[in-house]
Design a protein that fits this description.
Number of helices: 13
CATH architecture of one domain: Alpha-Beta Barrel
Shape: globular
Radius of gyration: 22 Å
Distance between the termini: 41 Å
Length: 446
Amino acid sequence: MAEMKLGLFIRPCGHHIASWRHPNAHDDANVNFDRFIQMAKTAERGLFDMLFSADTNSAWTTVDSALNRQHYAAWIEPYTLLTALAAHTSRIGLVCTKSTSFDAPYTVARMFASLDLISGGRSGVNIVTTGNPRAALNYSQEKHLAKSDRYEIADEFVDVLIGLWDSWSQDAFIRHKESSTYFEWDGMHVLNHKGKHFQVEGPLNVPPSPQGRPLIVQAGSSEKGRELAAKSADVIFVASQDFEMAREFCSDIKARAARYGRQPGDIKVLPGLTVTVAETQEEAQAKFDEMQELIHPELGLAYLSRRIGHDLTQMDPDIPMPDIDAVDDVGTRSGQMIELAKRENWTLRQLYQHFSATRGHMVLVGTPTTVADAMQEWFENGACDGFNVLPSLFPDEFESFVDLVVPELQRRGLFRTAYEGNTLRDLLEVPEPSSRFNAGGIQAAE
């Protein structure tokens, strides 16, 4: 029987926009590494496949006037964080974000190949094009590139990244002391990439990965994002509000992958999932409602403004959604949020409360049985290969998920009862890739 895959999306206090205000919150997690060790150990106790950390290249994640009301303004840089967590974990995967708009492919290739060696084959990189225009100002760019240009760069970036990870054959380093031969010359492959955006000679000066190469994770849902994911990604993180949306996305991605000669199982689709769980429905709902009431209206409107691409901060939160158009350049969720508000006839307050809890992802509030029922429906009916879990509050809600939901999934045969394999590819059951280079040694990539 197939088993679902589970990632933990780590975030200092939790994913709810007001999580830091909760009495039990780890509100100091952005400066306290021990909090992240606890998260990682809880995830490994729950037999999760991977830790996933997003990132952005700017502290200004909301409109300036509300910045001081939200907790995700400054945090430990995720790659450094996961490298440190590698020493405190032994089986769980380690995935974090790098931007194709601001990072160099050779640097990213070195970093994640090194993390793979440090962790014994447990690393992956989440490739993003960075939609936040403020980030460009931190990288000597006066203007952020258009979305279409960013995806054109990303496609070439990923191609270079994969080529660099193929720089060495697995058996290249023979370390033959008698003949004074440290590596086989034919086992080294020079990329010689000369493209529109990058010129990279290679080879990578890091030995080959224990799992063939680190995993590539991608989270774009636009047309260009889907195509890039189908072509190159091992894991796709997606925001899906309902079953039909999730099933359409999963089916589309698997069909596109086939055009690149890939099998459906080569890509794992993991929608985001926020769970509030308790022994009774009433208790779970009370916990959820308590968190919702902690959202400050200024922060809620600022959050909507950033996600929708229009400034709503001076509006009354109790009016309906104004007649505005989606702003595609800030992401696909702009249109989704506007459409949902109009369809449900929601006020701005109702919309920001909904998205502050979900950030566009599936939300379940209930008992272990009802939560597992919904997860099983999605998994067994083609909507996903598992979930990327976004706890609203650390530590309480994540510990509740591990202690209450995971045992129920295991009882149904839907989730592992022990780790199998040693690498992230082993856990996610995605195949080890073949190298673009043949046995001929040094050559240019076609």
